[in-house]
Amino acid sequence: MTTIVLWVSDLDRSVKFYSALFEAKHPYVTEGFASVEGNGNEVLIHLLPEQYRSEPTSGEDNPIKPVFEVVSLEKAKLAAGSNGGKIKSETSEYESWKYADGQDPDGNIIQVRERIGY
């Protein structure tokens, strides 16, 4: 993955979540917009206009599921859980990757993957 644009209801919460998930040290944040980069991932975060903001959803009706590379699934689970999201404990493996599904603080469904078996 290179870059994805996400619209969110709480910019600060999403910046904290993706910064922790990507181990990003210096996200770029301005009014209504942020860019968080790390581990080969980038999320451009846009704050939804007030009239479109809502509470987080289950995300099950989300038409896409971005996949982000992380150094460690265990670290990603801790980072997500500490920042308003969740990475499931169930994992699957395919070729040289281990995967786990999760949700960000706005309820967007995501997947994280860790390289295994170099």
Could you list some keywords that capture this structure?
2 helices, five-stranded mixed β-sheet, four-stranded mixed β-sheet, about 120 residues, alpha+beta
Beta-strand content: 35-45%
**Poorly predicted runs:** none
- Mean pLDDT score, rounded? 91
Structure annotation, total helices? 2
Q: Would you list the SSEs in sequence order as H and E?
A: EHEEEEHEEEE
The largest pleated sheet is described as: 5 strands, mixed
> Level of helix content?
10-25%
Query: How would you describe the shape?
Result: globular
Number of strands: 9
The Rg value, from CA coordinates, equals 14 Å
Helix/strand-derived category reads alpha+beta
Terminus-to-terminus distance: 20 Å
What this model shows, in words?
Helix content is 18%, strand content 37%. It contains two helices and nine strands; from the N terminus they run E-H-E-E-E-E-H-E-E-E-E. The chain has helices at 11-22, 73-81; strands at residues 3-8, 28-30, 33-38, 41-47, 67-69, 86-87, 92-94, 97-103, 109-115. The strands form two sheets. Strands 5, 6, 7, 8 and 9 form a five-stranded mixed β-sheet that branches. Strand 7 and strand 8 (97-103) form a beta hairpin.
Short description:
The protein is built from two helices and nine strands, in the order E-H-E-E-E-E-H-E-E-E-E.
